[in-house]
Amino acid sequence: MSSTTLAPPRSAVLRAAGLRHRPALLTLLAVMGVVSLALLLHGWYLHAGLDRTGAGSCDPATDACRVKFKQFLHQYADSVPMLTSVSYVLGGTFGAFLGGPLLAREFEHGTVRFAWTQGAGRSRWTAGGLVVGGAVLAGVSVPFGLLLRWWSVPSVMASGSFSPEAFVQLPPVLVGRVLVAFGVAALAGAVLRRTVIAVGLGLAVSVALPFLAYAVRSHYMAPVEEPVHTLAPLALDDRWVLSVWFSDPAGNRISESDFYNLGRDYANLQSLVSDGGYTMHQVYQPADRLWPFQWIEFGWTTLLAVALCAAAVWWVRRRAA
Amino acid sequence: MATDTVIDCGGIGKRYRRSWALRDCHLAVPAGHVVALVGPNGAGKTTLLSLAAGLTLPSEGAMTVLGDQLPGSPRALDRIGFVAQNAALYPGLPVRDLLAIGRHLNRRWDDARARDHLDGLGIPLERKYGRLSGGQQAQVSLALALAKRPELLLLDEPLAALDPLARHDFMSALLTAVAEDGLSVVFSSHAVNELEQSCDYLVVLAGGRVQVSGEVDDLLADHRMLTGPTAEADAVAERLPVVRDRRAGAQSHLLVRTGGVDAPVSGGWRQQRIGLEELVLAYLREPAASALPGPRGAVRPNQKVLS
Fold first, then answer.
1. Which structural domain range is residue A178 located in?
2. Is residue A20 in some structural domain?
3. Secondary structure (H, E, C), chain A
4. ipTM of this predicted complex?
5. Out of B82, B90, B101, whose CB is closest to A117?
6. I want to staple B88 with a disulfide (CB 3.0 to 4.6 A). Which of A1, A110, B58, B183 is the partner?
7. Any CB–CB contact under 8 A between A4 and chain B?
8. Which pTM does this prediction carry?
9. Contact A111 B90 (CB under 8 A)
10. Are residues A97 and A80 in the same domain?
11. For residue B80, which residues of chain A lie inside 8 Å, CB to CB?
């Protein structure tokens, strides 16, 4: 019996799922639009500040430029750290609020009894909803990530592209995180059948995920080690310094505290590494690994999200209504 | 494909946690009937319909629908329409979108029929489902189920939430479709008094088991209400299967099964045929009695090959 050919084509199921979820998707777009407008206005204010103080256009290696940037931070960007932490939560929120009701509300309203008795069957219907929701979410997260990046330029200037809060705002990682929140909330909705709990779990995971990802991020590629003969930060290089260690003139490794005990003050220590034969070894991820790291994190988070959605379909398939 | 039964189950059971909603349930519903499924709350009506619609899986035994199809299989989903209790659909969507969803999700879809059905009742397609009256919501659900041109239509308490006028409209729309398409219908209902005009086959469920199953005409012909002297009641009860036995002083009322003929009783007894409502109520009051008559009665477990 060729039972698989009986159901309507996949494209039709996707169109049906699009109609079904259109109100939720329109709401998502409206909320994202409002948030984006707020970010645009605040971003415009920050960028105008960068221009006015000249901190945006000067050479960041120079002391004069650092002064300008400090001046800018002082005048404009007091609220940026707080807003940056908000943006940690923001992306995942969209995923959780779209994913939570997607299946849970079907159970709460009893509409599964309509949806699952149509010719397409419950698995295709569930998969169709997840595909439509996930695709729209991923699609709108890309421009939203670009906007977040533009908005957070001052924070990136202050702490570098590899800083945890800047890294998670770039589109690839943002899309991955939003999809994981979506998948967790959808799966929780299928299993627990309660919208509120499903959204809550999605939110919790979307907040926890950046910390988990940060813990494993430095292991994506083997770090590079480089001997350095200055203690001053390499301002032009956007590298991600993981750790430093020191060696004495004979090449023996000495602990960081032993090294700092050698000199009286910063100038003295600086002269030890620049002329005294001591070496500082930086263990770091080079700046040009930013995008490879973005894609690696996008890859595993998106795979996780796909696995969560597949688990939701599997659950719906084996569970009774 | 010739289909002689629309629901066929031998010894099916469904357990929710610790309690059995349906147990050792034997039923073979022939095609071409409008079947009323009645029983008290918790008798297992919704469970039986959910099993037939493929919404839930049995804990024991197996069921086939439309001949040899497994409930919930693509072929069965294609040919069965289901209207759920309270007719729940997406409240935020306009009727037009609900029709489009149905069209996209089914291979067989008669859009014109659904539109004619709704136009005839003056239900605007632009109106959101959640803003329709209860009767209109039920009609939309029915229109969606009928647009699949199903061979079997399952309805779970379709009338429960409707006012008398809406009930009448709903049943007349349903019976029109039956007359036009010759589809089989199984609906559960509490409205025992309205069954006689609408159904021609009766299934009574009680305590998770099938108590009565048969064509209405056969069932009515098979039962007699005997009224006579209490002194002779025991003698009558020994010879005939008694469904319900009420003794009030000198006179007794015995509802007996006679096999389609008048009961062989003495002249001191008066015998009457009874109506469907009275029959159903008698069985509901006597859960231990059963009537599973005829060659199309319930299938015994040893006769039914479980697939």
1. 10-220+290-318
2. yes
3. CCHHHCCCCHHHHHHHHHHHHHHHHHHHHHHHHHHHHHHHHHHHHHHHHHHHHCCCCCCCCCHHHHHHHHHHHHHCHHHHHHHHHHHHHHHHHHHHHHHHHHHHHHHHHCCHHHHCCCCCCHHHHHHHHHHHHHHHHHHHHHHHHHHHHHHCHHHHHHHCCCCHHHHCCCHHHHHHHHHHHHHHHHHHHHHHCCHHHHHHHHHHHHHHHHHHHHHHHCCCCCCEEEEECCCCCCCCCCCEEEEEEEECCCCCEECHHHHHHHCCCHHHHHHHHHCCCCEEEEEEECHHHHHHHHHHHHHHHHHHHHHHHHHHHHHHHHCCC
4. 0.85
5. B82
6. A110
7. yes
8. 0.88
9. yes
10. yes
11. 117
Query: Do both A133 and A176 map to the same domain?
Result: yes
CB within 8 Å: A117 and B91: no
Judgement on whether residues A303 and A173 belong to the same structural domain of the protein: yes
Distance from CA of A108 to the nearest CA of B (A): 10
- Segment A273-295 shows an average pLDDT of 87
Number of domains in chain A: 2
Collect all residues of chain A within an 8 Å Cβ-Cβ radius of residue B88.
109-111, 113-114
Kindly state whether residues A308 and A248 are assigned to the same domain.
Answer: no
The answer to whether residue B240 neighbours chain A at the CB level (below 8 Å) is no
Q: Which residues of A touch B85 (CB under 8 A)?
A: 110, 113
Residues A239 and A185 reside in one and the same domain: no
Residues A203, A206, A212, A217: what is their CA dihedral angle, to the nearest 10 degrees?
Answer: -170
CB–CB of A119 and B105 under 8 A? yes
- Confirm or reject contact between B131 and chain A (CB < 8 A): no
State residue A7 phi and psi, 5-degree precision. -70, 155
Q: Tell me the per-residue pLDDT of A109-132, one tens digit each, with 9 for 90 and over.
A: 989 999 999 999 999 999 999 999
Please indicate, yes or no, if residue A4 is contained in any of the structural domains.
Answer: no
Between A156-160, A313-317, B124-128, B294-298, the lowest mean confidence (pLDDT) is in B294-298
A79 and A111 inside one domain: yes
Domains in chain B with CATH codes: 5-214 (3.40.50.300), 218-285 (3.30.70)
Q: How many CB pairs under 8 A join A and B?
A: 102
Examine the pLDDT at B239 and tell me if it is beyond 60: yes
Cα dihedral B163→B168→B173→B174 (10° resolution): 90
Contact (Cβ atoms closer than 8 angstroms) between residue A263 and residue A272? yes
For residue A279, with 0-12 CB atoms within 10 Å meaning exposed, 13-18 middle and 19 or more buried, which class applies? Answer: middle
- Whether residue A103 is found in the same domain as residue A234: no
Judge whether A102 lies within some domain: yes
Tell me: the pLDDT tens digits for A23-65?
999 999 999 999 999 989 988 988 888 888 877 777 777 778 8
A23/A34 same-domain check: yes
Distance CA A87, CA A75 (A): 21
Does residue A244 lie in a domain region?
yes
- What average pLDDT score do residues B46-69 get? 90
